Amino acid sequence: MAQRGVTPRNRTPLAELPVVPGATVPETSPTGDRTPATPQRVVLGPRLIDSPSGNIPDSILTPTLSPEEMAVRQRGRRRRPVIWSPDTNDRAFFSSSMQTPPRATATMTLRSSPRQRSLMQDFANVASTSGSVSPLKRMQTAQESTGNSPGNSSKKSKLDEMAMGRQNGALPLSTVLTGYSKEQLINIIGSIVANNDQLEDSIRRDLPLPDISPLDIELARIKNNIYTSVPNAKLIRRTDGHGYLRAAIHLETFKRTIHSQAQNLYASHHWDALFDYVLMAWTHVRETPVYDNTKHNAVRRYCFKLLVHHVTSALKYGASGLGTERVVRFQQRFPNMIKDCGDISECRKCLEYIMKRS
């Protein structure tokens, strides 16, 4: 029911206001922080319809950064711009006035070793030449540069060519020869008798029997190490597993020594010295400990079989050249040697053949 004294409305409550471009909202009274002189915003302009941020002030949409914020962003992690292309240089996007100062170059010159200077000279020579340089020329260049270095002067190389034994004539020749290796002595004697058959025959006639006493001393030393590796204690036996573990490394050394010594005499075809060596080494192998476990006696069995092989070769190739005295001594020890290793019974036929011919 309509109230009395009130004029009736001429439009519906939800009717839209007419959109007039450029129209402003009249201010009836100042409110808050606004005054009547404050300019009015355009109401229902195109920006309000096109974008939802039309009612937000421009100062909030595009805020200005403080100097402190600018410094923080420059020191922080740089971000790529929205528009970025991989074809352009990445450094162009990260241009900043705050750049790292260039590294100061040292004015002090470091000293290099003679080897470094020689290698640098070699690289310079190779770089200056063309790519078709032969390897022989490069080697010659390296040798020349090495010879000119302070550590390798030409004067020192001339002194090295002349051995001290040549300069000191008062020094006995036997003393000088002790400093040479086995290969050097072989080469020296070979070069002397190369074109002189008479000298070679005289040397052959004067050749002595190879001395096996140093080999005997070496085997005795290693055998003593086998026994000294296990201390004499009540709770430890030499022939048990613990005693074998203590002496295992010395047993392996003993096996390698016998193999190398016998192989050296075999390769040189000194059958008489090899025969004597087998009789000598057989005694040392027999004196090695016999362990409770049969697997631990593998080194002992290997040494016996190796000596059987070499004594068979000495009897086969040496034959009557061994001499009657050696064969008789071996025949006397033969029964005891069969008890140590049954494989030596194969030598019985060779012994019978040599005794018939003698």
Automatic annotation (TrEMBL):
Protein's cellular compartments: Nucleus
Biased composition (Polar residues): 94-115, 140-152
The protein, known as: Uncharacterized protein
InterPro entries: Cut8/Sts1_fam, Cut8/Sts1_sf
Organism: Anopheles culicifacies
Pfam families attached to this UniProt entry: Cut8
Key words, A-Z: Nucleus
Family recorded in the similarity comment: Belongs to the cut8/STS1 family.
Chain spans, region Disordered: 1-39, 90-115, 127-158
Molecular functions per Gene Ontology: proteasome binding
GO cellular component: nuclear membrane
Gene Ontology biological process terms, A to Z: nuclear protein quality control by the ubiquitin-proteasome system; proteasome localization
